[in-house]
Amino acid sequence: MRPTDQRAVDPFEPEAFLRSMRNVRPGLRTRSKIVKILRIGNYTAMQIASLGGMSYRSALNHLKALEKEKIAMKTGSRPSKWSLTGAGQQSVTKFLGKD
Questions:
Q1: Quick one: DSSP state of residue 71?
Q2: What distance in Å separates the CA atoms of residue 3 and residue 60, rounded to the nearest whole number?
Q3: How far is Cα 75 from Cα 95, in angstroms, rounded to an integer?
Q4: Checking phi first, is residue 43 left (phi over 0); if not, alpha (psi -120 to 50) or beta?
Q5: Taking the chain, what is the end-to-end CA distance rounded to the nearest angstrom?
Q6: In sequence order, what E strands does 1-99 have?
Q7: pLDDT at 78
Q8: What pLDDT score was predicted for residue 9?
Q9: Burial class (CB in 10 A: 0-12, 13-18, 19+), 51
Q10: How many CB atoms lie under 10 A from the CB of residue 67?
Q11: Which residue has the higher pLDDT, 4 or 70?
């Protein structure tokens, strides 16, 4: 497979790309899974880890990175549930004003 064909194999969620960290393929895959899960509803970090097939620590690290960029937020008291913010629910083109 040629490198240019890799995008067809790994369709990442636009919200998975972060400004504050390197956007390497494994992290993009994990954050894309998290964004897809949060589009369905609000979940705890443990539920997200279970649904996404990742470790709790990995889910929590990526959730905190998404929170730092205001894509996701946690609500409520322990156990906190995570959800997408308004910015996390928009497509990147709409967010940039190109829609």
A1: S
A2: 31
A3: 23
A4: beta
A5: 33
A6: 72-75, 81-84
A7: 87
A8: 52
A9: middle
A10: 15
A11: 70
Give the start-to-end residue ranges of the domains of the chain.
14-95
Determine contact, residues 50/62, Cβ cutoff 8 Å: no
Q: Which of 10, 7, 49 is nearest to 26 (CA)?
A: 10
Give the pLDDT of residue 92.
Answer: 46
What's the rounded Cα separation, in Å, for the pair 73 and 85? 6
Distance between CA 89 and CA 91 in Å, rounded?
A: 7
CA nearest 59: which of 41, 76, 82? 82
User: Does CATH number 1.10.10.10 belong to domain 14-95?
Assistant: yes
* Tens-digit pLDDT profile for residues 5-43: 444 456 776 676 666 666 667 778 899 999 999 999 999
**C-alpha 21: how far from its chain's center?**
13
Total residue count of the chain as it appears in this document = 99
Residue entry with tokens 């996390």:
88
**Hey, CA dihedral for 30, 16, 82, 41, is it positive or negative?**
negative
